[in-house]
């Protein structure tokens, strides 16, 4: 027995139904060998990867119509991997990543559950350089700005793993940490735009959620 319980959820993204195995609730925890603890994941944080969060659904919906042509895409903090699964179904060149030791098996299970090929996966700590990961044309993430210090940390990660001409797409539930991130990316030549988005059926306009898009065109990258 894995030491935790799961459920299957059905969610419709881009007009297609996805079956997703998730943790049954926020009380689940299993770290018998202390692997998660050694990575800095507390017992309170352990279950967070295994939920279908509104920000993750927003990112997945955005990826259902995102221009993927000729682009290598990296999802950071993938959790259950919904956005990566949507991209994989569309034939995108996508790599999923997370720090949580259970993200990879959940991603693999969910790919098989939906009749999709396996999504390439790398365990990635945002503050530890991983040159073997390479560079990408697009980096995506949902609710990755959940701590104030993540702006500089993530900007550095983007700098290490993005090509000169690149895009970033982030779904943010309105935690208030996006402005420092936007400023850091502006220093790197990125132009920003945003679309307000609901974070659930009870969220009324003006919505607190945002779909943030950053782009660095070729002329800026070469300057």
TrEMBL record:
GO molecular function, one term: methyltransferase activity
Domain of life: Bacteria
Keywords: Methyltransferase, Transferase
A single GO BP: methylation
Pfam families tied to this protein: Methyltransf_16
Cited InterPro entries: Methyltransf_16, SAM-dependent_MTases_sf
PANTHER family according to UniProt: HEPATOCELLULAR CARCINOMA-ASSOCIATED ANTIGEN, PROTEIN-LYSINE METHYLTRANSFERASE C42C1.13
The name this protein goes by in its record: Lysine methyltransferase
Species for this entry: Lysobacter spongiicola DSM 21749
